[in-house]
User: Fold these one by one.
Assistant:
Number 1:
Amino acid sequence: MSAGNGNRVTLGDPVPWFRAANIGGGKTDICVSAGRWILLAFLGSLAEPQAQSRLATLVKQAALFSDDHLIIYAVLATPPADAAQLLAMGGPVLKFIADYDGAIGEYYRAHERPRTIALDPMLRAIANISCDHPDGHDTVLERLLRDLPSVDNSAGVPLTAPVLVVPRVFDFPLCDLLVSIYDQVGGTDSGFLVAHDGKPATATDHSKKRRQDMVIAPPELRQRIRERILTRLLPAIELYFQFKATRMDRYLVACYDSEIGGHFFRHRDNLNPGVEHRRFAVSLNLNGGYQGCDLMFAEFGRRTYRPPVGGAIVFSCGALHEVTPITQGRRYAFLSFLYGEADAHKGMENNALLQEIEKNYQADQDRLYPVDVA
């Protein structure tokens, strides 16, 4: 769990993130579930009649919503007698997670008394309904759910993600050159880092990410790119984000292809030791003429973002984001990450935490400036 404010839930405050086992297999990362309303329904033991009654209410409520509006996590303190029967009650909205060691329930004080915690799309507590609420737990819960607005209206005013769009970073000839090289060389399947036995390692799961990547190797081409980043992008980042980047991770052309269902499911870019050093993500479009394949920042609504050809969109690596499915054509993009000297030291320290098969972070290969300038 991430830091909270002691063993209590204060309405309006962010709640701690946790990762828990799903009943039936897999894991739930609460930080990736943001961008919609969330219920944490601590049921205790389903052997108790009260828990069974509350579960019936959750099943009924789940049928009224879609999973881009609401997710219900039913948290169990003891293993269910019949997991298969329980899973049959679930679906896209209603999920079951295990808290058999009581760690999650202890933080939320649900080990003392079962309760339901409601979170807003930015993972802040908006309701804390105990099972013995004087107005009736289920009555209060139904009233709460009935009054929830759409995610786009969750703040009462339109929200805009904290992103920076900078046009004209790459000139059109450079964009065309990078696309041409990619079409000649081709890309390889792109994975992502996940934790295995406590250490990050690259995994491939096409249900979460489908993209082909090509590393830009020629030194003269990398220098040409670096010059454009230094003169046309970094000044805007320093001015508007108050951050001076000195290093850039990766020189990469990525391709999302509609013929194979290109997309990237919601994620954050800095959540494990292999990528903690990253501060800002850069996505620079190299072409147009495709459909779909836009960036979405779910914590700020369903609005999508697309930089112009040759332009970049820059955002915090901590922001939850996704690349929507591409429905027609191909999207080519230059992708990279920016950070500073302290972050580079962190990357070196974290090498010890990676799986042995993973490529270690190399602090001598990513400088944007000569050593005497950095």
Number 2:
Amino acid sequence: MFINFRLPALLLIIIWVLYKVIYYGLNRNRFKLHRELLSTLCFIYAVGVISVTIFPLAIGLQESFPTKNNYVPFASINELLHHFYFMVPLRNIGGNILLFVPFGILIPMKFKKVNKGFKIVLLGFLSSLTIECIQLWLTFRSFDIDDIILNSFGVYIGFLIYKWITLIFMSRQSDEKIHQGL
């Protein structure tokens, strides 16, 4: 039997929202919409990553699924790039990169002290490594060092997007201050 994560994920999100509504119903003076939207977005992103990387879970199945672990950097990327159908590398390589782009954007937005590229990429690397280690112990998933590399690259791209957006807003704010001073 396989347990899919869609229903539990939806229930977790509903519980999260209800918790926030009740919490801020009791503590009205602490509510800040932008902070809560960011926290909720981070929570939904984390649930989404878990649902894609860990689930479905095989429960009660005695048989072992054939998995192919990869400990050699760039081996599976090279294999994918030589696949006869272009959608396979696009889905696997692009998917692993895109999965962690939001990480590179959301973490520096949520945690202001973690705003250096090295810290963000290291945190993304450790998060991806944790996911891959969990997959190593699951009989229907496989460990792939290339996933960690691609996920880390996605974090870096996300961080660059975050910095680019931050620079745009900072330049607009400074332009507005200059125009207000004239």
